Amino acid sequence: MRKRIIDLIKRGNKITGQYFDLYYKKADEKTLKIGFQVSRRCGNSVVRNKVKRRIRLFIRKHLKSGDFFIKIKVNLKKLTDEDIEREWNEIKKRIFL
């Protein structure tokens, strides 16, 4: 998995948002792979895992295949579902251009 993430960062596309950076590459196969990087400064493990689950849900709902790596940039305690959805909708528009 580590090799795949490094390749994705080097050769994939990057979209920078307000709350997170998204690296992505369209996959040849019909699989969906999602990786995360969340700093300990963003909250304790419960908070970090909760936000990862929420973001993973948005990605699975809207995309069926591809490789994605997400770097979280903000304090996650302040992030609401509406913030994530708004950010994801903006990023989704840029992915499909």
From TrEMBL:
Keywords: Endonuclease, Hydrolase, Nuclease, RNA-binding, tRNA processing. NCBIfam families: rnpA (TIGR00188). Its EC number is 3.1.26.5. InterPro entries: Ribosomal_Su5_D2-typ_SF (IPR020568), Ribsml_uS5_D2-typ_fold_subgr (IPR014721), RNase_P (IPR000100). The gene is rnpA. It comes from candidate division TA06 bacterium ADurb.Bin131. GO terms for molecular function: 3'-tRNA processing endoribonuclease activity; ribonuclease P activity; tRNA binding. It comes from the Bacteria. One of its GO terms (cellular component) is ribonuclease P complex. This is Ribonuclease P protein component.
